[in-house]
Amino acid sequence: MKTSIKFLPVLFCVLLGFTNNALAENGFYLRGSIARLIPASTQLYDNNPGGASSWFSGGAYPIDGFSNTPSNSNGVEFAIGYRFSPTLRADLSYQVNDNSLVEFNYSTAVASFDIKSSQFMLNGYLDLAPLLFSKETAPSFAPYLLAGIGVSKNINSDYRCSPAAVCGGTATSFANNNTRSDTAWQIGAGFQWPINNSILVDVSVKHMDLGETRGSDVIGVSTGINGKLTANVISIGLFIPFGAK
C-alpha cells in the first residue's frame, strides 16, 4: 500500500509529460458518459401531517419526518457543447437514471417504492491546465471544475405494501405513481485524458441536487410522501471535439 502511494507522484509527473492540442481547440464537442449515483441524503415527510399520519391504512405506521436513503442507481448522460477559450466551455446535457429503491421495514410490514429521475442541465466548465501551465508545458492530463443548473423530472412508482393482511388488504399499488419536475443543480471536478488526437476520456465526480420527489395520495387515506433528493455521482465517458486533428 505504501509503495503504491509513493508511486502516485511519479505517475502524475509522467501524465504531465504528454501534450495534446485537442484539449484546447475551440469549437463544438460531443460528450457521453455512464454514471453511478450514490444518494447522499433523503428526508421523507408525510404530505398531510394534519390528517392521517401514515401512508399505511389506519395510520398505524407514522412516517412524519422519517429518514431513509434510496438505493444506488446507474445513469447515462449525453451532451453537446462549445469551447469558447482554452479555459472556458459550456454544454447542454441530458441524463437519465434507472430505478432507485426506497424501502421501509417495520415489525409487521414492508413498504417500498421506486424513484426514477432524469435531468436536463446547462453546465459551465473551467479548465485549469492553461491557468497552471504554459502552452509549451500544458499537460494532457487536464483537470477542470464544473457547475450546472437545470430541471429534474422525478417519478415515483406505485407504492407497494406487504403482507396484504397488514396493509388494509392491498398488497400492491396502495398509492398511485406521481411525477414532479423541480430545479436541479450540480457542482464537481474532473479531468480529461486523450486516447488520441480526436477522442478524450472524461472522468468526473459531482454532487447533484435532483430537486423534490412527491408521491400522490394514498388510496383511501388522503396522504402521501415527499422528500428532497441529493446524490454524489461518479462518471466516466468520452469527450469528442469537432474538427480535432
What would your notes on this structure say?
- This protein is mainly beta.
- It has a single domain (34-241), classed as Porin, CATH 2.40.160.
- 8% of the residues lie in helices and 55% in strands.
- It has 2 helices and 12 strands.
- Strand 3 and strand 4 (88-97) form a beta hairpin.
- It is elongated, with a radius of gyration of 23 Å.
- The average pLDDT is 74
Could you tell me how far the N terminus lies from the C terminus, measured between alpha carbons in angstroms?
A: 40 Å
Class by alpha and beta content: mainly beta
Order of helices and strands: HEEEEEEHEEEEEE
The count of DSSP E runs of length 2 or more, i.e. the number of strands, is 12
Tell me the overall shape. elongated
Please identify, by name, the CATH architecture.
Answer: Beta Barrel
CATH topology description = Porin
Number of helices: 2
Radius of gyration: 23 Å
How many structural domains does the protein architecture include?
1
Strand order of the largest sheet: 1-3-4-6-7-10-11-12
CATH class, please? Mainly Beta
Model regions low in confidence, pLDDT < 50 over at least 5 residues: 1-21, 49-67, 219-223
Largest sheet: number of strands, sense, barrel closure: 8 strands, antiparallel, barrel
Helix fraction, binned, reads under 10%
Portion in strands = over 45%
